[in-house]
Amino acid sequence: WEAPPEWVMEPGGGMRLVTFRRGGVELYLTVLGGDGGGVVPNIQRWVEQLGLTPPTAAEVAALPKVEVMGVPSPLLEATGEYTGMGASGAIPDTTMYGIVCLLPERAVFVKMLGPSAEVLAERERFTAFVASMHSEDSH
After folding, report:
1. Beta-strand relationship, 25-33 and 16-22
2. Are the CB atoms for 30 and 133 separated by under 8 Å?
């Protein structure tokens, strides 16, 4: 990948391959074996973390697609009150962009979240980052 110079890279940890921060925005990349639990269950869980009603499988299938490493991958854009991943309480006005890319033997997840205005300001950099991703064995 090619990360924007404005993003500060931190080491990965746990399941995260890498984490980037800019202001109150956090972006991280996770790679799991197989299908990583599947596209629909992951997107449903992410939406629930925002306190929203999880989408149906048909609604997930209808999400816009972006190409990630040659694979059309659903892009979630949602805003709500974030309560996931160890948040001490609901964090209002949180926007999340998330991508699930299923490759033949692994799943790649990219999630960016933070205060809505800050996340919206990073949208173009997020899109460019995702478009720049490639597998080391294919580049």
Report:
1. antiparallel
2. no
H or E element in which residue 127 lies? helix 123-132
| Contact (CB, 8 A) for 93 and 21 | no
Lowest mean pLDDT across 10-14, 26-30, 42-46? 10-14
Q: Please name which of 64, 128, 117 lies closest in space to residue 95, comparing C-alpha atoms.
A: 117
Question: Do the Cβ atoms of 43 and 60 come closer than 8 Å?
Answer: yes
Query: What letter does residue 54 receive in the DSSP assignment?
Result: P
- The answer to whether residues 129 and 1 touch, using CB atoms and an 8 Å cutoff, is yes
Over residues 55-91, the pLDDT tens digits come to 999 999 999 999 999 999 999 999 999 997 666 788 9
**Are the C-beta atoms of 24 and 96 separated by less than 8 Å?**
no
The rounded distance, in Å, linking the Cα atoms of 53 and 8 is 33
